[in-house]
Amino acid sequence: MNWPARRTRPGLRAGPARLGLAALVAYLAPVPPGMLLLWLGTLVEQGPPAASYIASHGFFLLASLYLSWAGLLVGVPLSILALRTDWAGWAVALGTGAVLAAGVSHLTGLEPDIVLPGALVIAAAYWLMLRRMTGPALAR
Length: 140
Known about the structure:
Layout lengths: L15 H13 L2 H13 L5 H15 L4 H17 L5 H19 L3 H23 L6
Helix pairs in contact: 1-6, 2-3, 3-6, 4-5, 5-6
């Protein structure tokens, strides 16, 4: 199975239902890892500082639901453009997620290390859903 980093087959299209489903899954994708990290961080009540660091990242992944809709509003149209111009690889999706995270970080004043993990999880989940729905179409 080929998982292209940058270039895909040109002229791909995804309908509104598929784009909406991919966006919904991507929107909810940070919840399971966030809950897992929060749970792992609370296992050690008075443990090392790493435990609170893990729990705080879990909390911010869960809290990303409050900001990720804004990134998806910009990211979904960009993904349509990427599909049509054969730039829909996984590295492009993660790079776009990182750039959108930087923009959200700048606009909201949140630290990039708080926003970036959630944005990368969302970008990866969105790309994986598009990959799953288009099958070999995203392969080069």
